[in-house]
Amino acid sequence: MLPREYLRENAERLLAEMPERFGKAGLETYVELDRERRDAVTKLEEKRRRRNELSAIKGKPAPEALEEMKALKEEIRALEERAEQADHMLAAVEKGVPNVPQASVPRGKDETSNVVERSWGAPPQFAFPAQAHWDLGPGLGILDFERGVKLAGARFTVLFGAAARMSRALIQFFLDVHVDEQGYTEVLPPFLANADSLFGTGQLPKFAADLFQTTEGYYLIPTAEVPVTNLHRDEILPADTLPLLYTACTPCFRSEAGSAGRDTRGMIRQHQFDKVEVVMLVRPEESAAALETLTAHNEELLRRLELPYRVVSLSTGDLGFASAKTYDLEVWLPGMNAYKEISSCSNFEAFQARRASIRLRRAEGERLEFVHTLNGSGLPVGRTLVAILENYQRADGSVAIPKALQPYMRGLKEIGVRSLKV
User: Fold this and answer.
1) Partner of 233 at 20 to 30 A CA spacing, among 48, 67, 288, 352?
2) Are strands 219-220 and 244-253 parallel, antiparallel or unpaired?
3) Which of 290, 271, 269 is nearest to 281 (CA)?
4) What is the DSSP letter of 311?
């Protein structure tokens, strides 16, 4: 969330300079609403001051004073209602205003303005037609889309044998690198979250339709970012405890309400999937460098798996609601002949911390500041499994297993055509 003082001074500028990001945020009415609220508050203070003056008069009030006090009572009540209503309207607008992009973010109306920063690895060249994972997996007997539909519905998949084992292997591999080599602390948070947690990270109220809610009012988490970032909600952190680096593997649940017709085949866009997430809480002056570090940490996983990928800087029209800057890691999928997002690495600056009231104190007696928060997918299990199947496929339909993953697969080096079928 952005400070009211900042919006008061910059609402019109933001709307004029970046309509692709702020055009639907209600900023065209913000300045007028703020002016109305401040006018009501000013008049309210004047009326209260006059009421106090009259109340301070000793002795029996004159009839004129009694009439004035009666009128003041009604005027004060009306002004209080007016100020409260304007304040509620302002707060509602503020909750829906996205974060301000950093100056280095590419300008543009949508994903077509994203900029490829760098790439790693060459897409494999096969001497045979590449298959997509939705053909490879069923052919190996390890992915079952029909049974997923039978058990739950569309956008669910059942994994058998080597695919289920590979999912476990990927989770362990990701966590081992993050914890043992990159310095993250592993967390196992609840998989349900309350509304305050979803508000803190920016999913509520704007993206309620993308969430699954229980009858008790809890939400199934869409990402571990939600509970892990909120670990320190409403806390004041000593500056010398920062940075805090966390990683967690959780199931993630998304309704995909806004994705009709997108990636409907296969496992790219599911209602339920496992994902390892990395989260950083840092001092404000460190967040720009922290984003580069966090992104490099997740790139390292793809390099060790020898999966071709590219790093893309998202434009102002494609940037997530809470983000000030985002790099997407896109992995090459031969069966789809395209790069697909596999990780989103974002710097939220103070946007989430302000919503969740996560502050830092540099020294005793100094003013409190909001920490900066960052997070990234490190990595989603299903999409990584898809990338391995498609990039390591062979002409006979079998799939080799990346060398970095073989120790986690009990030495298994390939998924054979006739092995582990159901």
Assistant:
1) 288
2) unpaired
3) 290
4) E
Please list, in sequence order, all residues whose beta carbon lies within 8 angstroms of the beta carbon of residue 214, skipping any fewer than 6 positions away: 192, 220
Environment class of 234 (CB within 10 Å of its CB; exposed 0-12, middle 13-18, buried 19+): exposed
Is 277 exposed, middle or buried (CB count within 10 Å of its CB: 0-12, 13-18, 19+)? buried
Cis previous bond, 420, omega within 30: no
Active site residues: 254, 269, 341, 344, 383
pLDDT per residue as tens digits for the range 395-420: 999 999 999 999 999 989 999 975 44
Q: Is the omega angle on the peptide bond into residue 61 within 30 degrees of 0, that is, cis?
A: no
Of 230, 226, 231, 224, the C-alpha closest to 247 is 224
User: Average pLDDT in the 36-45 region?
Assistant: 90
| Helix residue ranges, H only, 141-205 | 145-151, 161-176, 195-201
What is the average pLDDT across 262-276?
Answer: 88
For residue 136, give the H/E element and its range. helix 133-140
Rounded Cα–Cα distance for residues 370 and 198 (Å):
18
Q: 3-state DSSP call for residue 215?
A: coil
DSSP secondary structure letter of residue 368: P
- pLDDT one-digit tens code per residue, 234-250: 999 999 999 999 999 99
Domains and CATH numbers, the chain: 4-95 (1.10.287), 111-415 (3.30.930.10)
Q: Is a pLDDT exceeding 50 seen at residue 13?
A: yes
pLDDT tens string 124-172: 999 999 999 999 999 999 999 999 999 999 999 999 999 999 999 999 9
pLDDT category, 65, cuts 50, 70, 90?
A: confident
| Beta carbons of 31 and 14 less than 8 angstroms apart | no
In the chain, the amino acid numbered 157 is T
